[in-house]
Specification:
Elements lengths: L1 H15 L2 H5 L5 H29 L6 H20 L13 H16 L1
Length: 113
Amino acid sequence: MAYSAVFAAPFFVLALAPQLVAQLPRSGGWMHAVKIVMGFLEVAAAMKFISNVDLVWGWGIFTREFVLATWVGVGGVATLYLVGLVRLSHEETPMGERALAQAVWSPHWSASR
């Protein structure tokens, strides 16, 4: 019940106040980045659920270390994507000076938080 209420809440609020829809940001590059990162998170979640099946059925393939290593790898690739060092083949923007600046300053920024 709580799971469905959380997903329904934004639609409920927007139905109560339709003028808020006009104030929502337009999709663009930021939405594309959100979709890519959510895809990485989905792969990490899939590994967790596959490891649960592995535990129940006793395969012994997806050990805890393997799943954790996969999560670290997926997190690393997602971080590199957000920093701008990794781009997908269908994306137009190559790594430029801005991506290099993000790569240099992101460890400093994340360590200061």
